[in-house]
């Protein structure tokens, strides 16, 4: 980096990161920008300016792809959430593996305007998600906010909208979640009533296991039905 500027050029970024990511190239960085994974500023002459945070963001994206095998749309979701202080398990694990102190999260509610602007989702879409009971804002000292879970739901809704899936289509997921919640509450009830000191930990473990099994079952049933459709059954 030149002593007269506080940023790297795209060529200098490649030179800096290439020892750790041998397949990195200028064209690949440009593609990441086209996919809105990174958003470097430009000079008056139109050249990209990679500041320290831009390079960190690019390297995190490269690691999510290389170590977690995530597709670009999922990487973009992870980064969008991180911009709002919401750290996903994948990013949290990378931070833990490398003790990267720049990746932090407070998991606090996000003001609605900030969430909508950061996610890049249409306000009308968010309004429909609220009307259908899929997300529910909360009132805090900062005004109307969305919880960490609602922010993640909006990111997913934004991605699904690219396939023509609208908020009204997402009602079935909310309905299923409500039914599953009723079922799981019955299973967890005996544990909740216990006086054991570790009952909170036990509830988390059982719920995580049930959620994982449920997700696997839904994915298998979905794949099975789609495969049957493709085979004309």
Describe what you observe in this structure.
This protein is mainly alpha-helical. It has helices at residues 10-17, 26-34, 52-68, 72-83, 89-98, 112-119, 123-131, 148-161, 171-193, 199-230, and strands spanning 41-42, 48-49, 110-111, 138-140, 143-146. Helix 3 (52-68) packs across helix 4.
Shape field: globular
Main β-sheet description: 3 strands, antiparallel
Class of secondary structure makeup: mainly alpha
How many β-strand stretches? 5
Q: In terms of per-residue confidence, which ranges show pLDDT below 50 for 5 or more consecutive residues?
A: 99-105
Q: What is the overall number of helices?
A: 10
Regarding quaternary structure, what we see is: single chain
Task: Kindly report the average pLDDT value.
Answer: 87
Measured distance between first and last alpha carbons: 61 Å
Order of helices and strands: HHEEHHHEHHEEHHH
In the sheet with the most strands, the strands line up as 3-5-4
Strand content: 5-15%
Helix content percent band: 55-70%
Radius of gyration: 21 Å
């Amino acid at each position: 980096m030149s002593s007269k500027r506080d940023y790297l050029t795209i060529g200098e970024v490649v030179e800096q990161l290439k020892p750790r990511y041998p397949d990195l190239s200028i064209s690949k960085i440009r593609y990441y920008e086209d996919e809105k994974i990174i958003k470097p500023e430009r000079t008056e002459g139109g050249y990209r300016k990679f500041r320290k945070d831009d390079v960190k963001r690019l390297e995190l994206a490269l690691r999510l792809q290389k170590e977690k095998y995530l597709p670009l749309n999922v990487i973009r979701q992870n980064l969008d959430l991180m911009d709002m202080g919401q750290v996903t398990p994948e990013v949290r694990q990378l931070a833990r593996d490398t003790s990267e102190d720049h990746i932090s999260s407070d998991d606090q509610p996000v003001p609605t305007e900030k969430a909508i602007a950061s996610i890049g989702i249409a306000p009308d879409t968010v309004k429909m998600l609220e009307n259908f009971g899929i997300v529910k804002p909360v009132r805090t000292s900062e005004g109307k906010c969305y919880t960490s879970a609602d922010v993640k739901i909006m990111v997913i809704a934004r991605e699904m909208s690219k396939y023509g899936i609208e908020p009204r289509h997402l009602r079935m997921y909310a309905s299923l979640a409500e039914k599953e919640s009723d079922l799981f509450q019955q299973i967890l009830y005996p544990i909740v009533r216990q006086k054991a000191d570790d009952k909170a930990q036990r509830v988390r473990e059982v719920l995580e296991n049930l959620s994982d099994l449920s997700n696997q079952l839904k994915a298998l049933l979905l794949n099975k039905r789609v495969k049957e459709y493709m085979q004309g059954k």
